[in-house]
Amino acid sequence: TRLLSAANLLALLAHQYEEYVDPGYFPGQFNRGMFKSDSPRNYPLNPQTAMVINTALAYPFYVGPVIFRRPKWLSLAAVILGWSQAVLHGIVLPRRSGASYGPGFLTALLLHVPIGIAYVKALNNEDPICARDWANGVGCAVVSTVGGLVLPNLAMRDKNSPYEFTEAQMGPYDVEPTPRQLTGSR
Length: 186
Hints:
71% helix; 8 helices; elongated; mainly alpha; 0% strand
């Protein structure tokens, strides 16, 4: 189970690569496609917020199960979050943005989902998972989503943020260049 938790952590790194690098236009799809932002390069999600969410909050959440094999719900929460990425990037974001694909879907489907299934099977073989474990795992996943994704996005959203996503990170959701981009100032 520890090895599978480590694999789930590595899947997170691959998932973030798919979101922000190749194809990398998750920020554009999220801001413009999902939230119809008129400042999609930096609102509601901006690079500073993404860094906080993806490093300070997500990494410890996925590292925890690698270090601590118990309680079971801690690992189940990370598995559930990985599975939810497949739904978010495969259904919710594409549907809201009128696209056929959401960056992050392939890694969620091909890594998070099978690793999570293998983890649940392995954990259940070691020590059967009870309804309380599942309930606590779901509860932890919900709390971490609210505390690690929703609240930072709400607290750090700023239409005047100097932190902007690149043209590549906007992908097909890019709009007119901002005054900052035209002058080259930061």
